[in-house]
Amino acid sequence: MFHGSYLENDVNFLLKKIELEFTDVSEKEREIQSGKKHYSEMISRENLPTEKYLEIFHESMNRNLENFAQDILNLAFLLPKDVAIVSLARGGTPIGVIAKRIILERFGVDLQHYSISIIRDRGVDWNALKFILERHKKVIFLDGWTGKGVIGRELKKSISEFNSKFKKNLSTDLYVLADISGTADFSVTNRDYLIPSSALNSTISGLISRTVLNDLIGKNDFHGCLFYSEFKDNDYSLDFAEKVVKKSQKLEPNLKKFIEPKSEFRENKKKRIDELMKKYDVSNYNFLKPGVAETTRVLLRRVPKKILLQNLENWDTKHLIQLSNEKNIPVDEVADLPFSAIGIVKNIVK
User: Fold this and answer.
1) What is the pLDDT at residue 260?
2) What is the pLDDT of residues 169-212, one digit of tens each?
3) How does the average pLDDT of the chain come out, rounded?
4) How far is Cα 138 from Cα 112, in angstroms, rounded to an integer?
5) For 342, phi and psi rounded to 5 degrees?
6) Nearest to 190 by CA among 342, 339, 341, 343
7) CA dist., res. 254 & res. 74, Å (int)
8) Which of 27, 57, 84, 140 is the most exposed place for a label (fewest CB within 10 A)?
9) What is d(CA 158, CA 274) in angstroms, rounded to the nearest whole number?
10) Which residues contact 211 (CB under 8 A, 6 or more apart)?
């Protein structure tokens, strides 16, 4: 266990720190799309954001800080208080850190918070689950947001298999802050807006990389990650958490119960995604990434083809315009887009 650049009481990362040779983004994309390697086997070098991008990020975040603090305050009040929080690295980690702090401050309950790996097509890290269940009877799984619901489905599949194999009864429910696709079990908003922790990489997530599962990970190891200690002078993880908690102290919860996912909402979003895939000639379901958070990831970690924005004047997506300009990626305004943003990954293996 380690806590990255967070405070020791904020989180325990159940991840194995590794060193790994970086793979160029374009080469990584070719390997993934050709099926030669799974995305979790490789990692590309993270770059610090440009001065202009950071300027836009901070201005956008400050404009939206009260809304974000209100949502995470609502989440903290509605979460059960007799569990260990298990956040999904990396997207769930900052949310878990802030929620844990708010719960301690408002309720006097010091919940344990672990952050573990989940990988599409590979599942949850079972070794991490075993470690947690040796110490806690009840856990909840927490993430930051949904896109198309892929991680939520992966969680349910993997936990169900774990329960069957080890005769456990873990809940497969997923709690998220923002459920833009209607695919999470519990959320506090369906709004597609800028979740600040999605707009930066390791420098807002405790200086850890996304998780890795390759031949460096032994049978009894936790899934792996890189720890970017070289970015410590540019790390915003603690400042961000403290800023949100401070803002939340001036607010009161305004949501009495979690939002229940509605099948009509979910089916409508799925239908619109299918329509957009046809319109923009996207043949692979994994190449279309809905939502501000997932679109940011496309620009930071993938090879983008095009970015679609619902409104070019929306402050929640100003950072996407800046990133697109820096990378020479075309941006289309689509007024009837069912999300604030959509990122389309370029098909580079024809």
Assistant:
1) 81
2) 999 999 999 999 999 999 999 999 999 999 999 999 999 999 99
3) 96
4) 11
5) -140, 135
6) 339
7) 7
8) 27
9) 26
10) 15, 40, 89, 90, 117, 118, 119, 125, 223, 224, 225
Alpha carbon distance 89, 40 (integer Å): 13
Is residue 261 predicted with pLDDT exceeding 90? no
Q: Give the N- to C-terminal CA distance of the chain in Å, as an integer.
A: 42
Q: Which amino acid is at 270?
A: K
Q: Which two tokens stand for residue 128?
A: 């991490």
Q: Which pairing describes strands 113-119 and 84-89: parallel, antiparallel, or unpaired?
A: parallel
Question: What is the separation of C-alpha 108 from the centre of its chain, rounded to a whole number of angstroms?
Answer: 27
Residue with tokens 């208080």: 81
Does this model's pTM top 0.70? yes
Query: What residues have CB less than 8 Å from 268, skipping those under 6 apart?
Result: 338
Q: How many CB atoms lie within 10 A of CB 336?
A: 6
The count of other CB atoms within 10 Å of the CB of residue 2 is 16
Query: What are the angstrom distances between the C-alpha of 190 and each of 76, 122, 182, 226?
Result: 17, 27, 7, 32
The residue whose two tokens read 């369906």 is: 190
Q: Does 349 have pLDDT greater than 90?
A: no
3-state secondary structure of 89: strand
What is the pLDDT at residue 262?
Answer: 81
Number of H helices, E strands in the chain: 9, 12
Helices (H), the chain: 25-34, 51-78, 93-107, 126-133, 150-166, 237-248, 263-279, 292-301, 318-327
96 backbone dihedrals φ, ψ, rounded to 5°: -65, -40
Contact 13, 212 (CB under 8 A): no
pLDDT digits (tens, 9 = 90+) for 278-325: 999 998 999 999 999 999 999 999 999 999 999 999 999 999 999 999
CA-to-CA distance for 204 and 49, rounded, in angstroms?
Answer: 12
Q: How far apart are CA 28 and CA 36, in angstroms?
A: 10
In this predicted structure, what is the pLDDT of residue 350? 67
pLDDT, tens digit, for every residue of 168-180? 999 999 999 999 9
Strands of the 341-345 sheet, one edge to the other? 288-290, 341-345, 304-309, 331-333
